[in-house]
Amino acid sequence: MRPSPSDDGGPARRGRRGLVAGILAVALATLLVLGLRARGPVVPTTRAVRADISRHVVASGRVRVTTRVQLAAQVSGRVLEVAVAEGRTVRAGDLLVRIDDREARAAVAQAEAAVDRARGLLDQLQRVSAVVTGESSRQAAVALEQAEATLARTRTLAAGGALSRVDLEDAERAVDIARARKQAADAEAAAATPGGADLGVAEAGLAEARAQADAARVRLAHTRVTAPEAGTILTRTVEPGDTVQPGATLFELAAGDHTELVIEPDERNLAWIREGQVARASADAFPDRQFDARVDFVAPAVDARRGSIEVRLVVPDPPPGLRPDMTVSVELAVATEHDVVVVPSEALRDVTSDAPFVWVVEGARIARRPVTLGLHGDGHSEIVSGLDAGTEVVLATDRPIADGQRVRTRAEVR
User: Looking at the DSSP assignment, which residues form a beta bridge with residue 368?
Assistant: First the structure.
């Protein structure tokens, strides 16, 4: 029986045809792989361009309190009132704490009464005693003159035998007594006059009373603790009803007329940092609120333990919410070059060595190109020499490549 026209010759012929097709497919795949290998691996590339580049130092730091003032009690007593809370902004002279002042007020009243007494005594010496002692001195002088006149007459009469020796002695004794009284009256009058002893004692007593009154007023003033200057209350350690002692710290005040930031970048950045450089900063609590800062101080020595350098920045216009000791991030622009050859930093090889280089593509093949580097910043690096703008460079790739190797490129934008 003959096979029909549609019969393909049976299973054997179909098997031979499948084998041939498989061999051809394998051959084509092999040829394709060999062709691709001959063309080289695919590597990402970009081109060197001319652009501006800036070097930035980024560091974390804190808001620095320029002046910390410890406010302490200067007298002992029970606290009657605490007028401020932590975080409160105060002005110079604002009341912070009031201590029980009843005893201090009584001491002031007592000292002022002593002043009044001393002033009265001085007035008495100046207005009354001077007059009285002056009159006493005048009367003593008159009495002395009378006694001396009587003595003269007695001597004349005694010489003529009219009076006895006893009468003469009595007259002489009366003159001595009058002279002594005159001297005493003169001394009292002199003491009551300006520059005299009694007046000097009275004036000294008044000065002492006034000094004691001033001291009492000072002690009374110390029962009110006030802000010595404008600032922000950082800590408060006192409550109404507490009994405080002299020297006990009640508040810590952040004072100062400007806001500072402190950062400690690595000492390797020291050569780039200068006073007057500008920066952008933001508080970690408010990262979307950026503000300007300016380098005001670079420490003269490096922290040997940390290998860092302290840098302080002034904030000319502090944003709301910026508080003492708050953590901040600072980006400091330390150098800028204009219109220079720039490549993505990922295109650089052996950056830390003495011979950095880049891979460039020349005629579909890889070539090693030594370069001299300049600034690094924002993911790009300056090429000082060794590379021209427009040159195609190879970016970072996980494929092994070698000098002279054929490659296929995949252009990327960086």
Answer: 359
Q: Which two tokens stand for residue 243?
A: 């009994």
DSSP string over 263-274: E--BGGGGGG--
Q: Where are the domains of the chain?
A: 42-53+337-411, 58-65+256-336, 76-100+223-255, 103-220
Predicted pLDDT at 118: 85
Q: Which of 297, 303, 301, 300 is nearest to 260 (CA)?
A: 297
Q: What confidence score (pLDDT) does residue 36 get?
A: 46
The span from the CA of 44 to the CA of 118, in Å, is 101
Residue type (1 letter), 300: P
Residues with pLDDT less than 50, the chain:
1-7, 31-37
For the domain covering 76-100+223-255, report its CATH number: 2.40.50.100
Q: What is the Cα–Cα distance from 166 to 133, expressed in whole angstroms?
A: 34
Residues 122 and 323: their CA atoms lie apart, in Å, by 59
Instruction: Give yes or no for a contact between 58 and 403, defined as CB atoms under 8 angstroms apart.
Output: no
CATH number assigned to the domain covering 42-53+337-411: 2.40.420.20
* Predicted pLDDT of residue 234: 87
The whole-model pTM stands at: 0.52
**Tokens representing 381?**
């690096």
Mind listing the pLDDT tens digit for each residue in 339-353? 999 999 999 999 888
| C-alpha distance from residue 244 to each of 35, 106, 345, 386 (Å) | 92, 20, 63, 75
Report how far apart the first and last C-alpha atoms of the chain are (Å, whole number). 76
The whole-chain average pLDDT of the chain stands at 83
CATH number of 58-65+256-336: 2.40.30.170
Return d(Cα 345, Cα 379) in angstroms, integer. Answer: 6
Looking at residue 4, its pLDDT comes to 47
pLDDT score at 119? 84
Question: Residue 166: what pLDDT?
Answer: 80
70 vs 249: CA distance, rounded Å: 6
Closest residue by Cα to residue 292 from 335, 254, 334, 332? 332
- Report the C-alpha dihedral over residues 182, 188, 189, 190, rounded to 10 degrees: 110
Half-sphere exposure of 236 (CA within 13 A, CB side): 16
Instruction: Report the distance separating Cα 187 and Cα 157, nearest Å.
Output: 35
- Of 201, 206, 250, nearest to 224 by C-alpha is 250
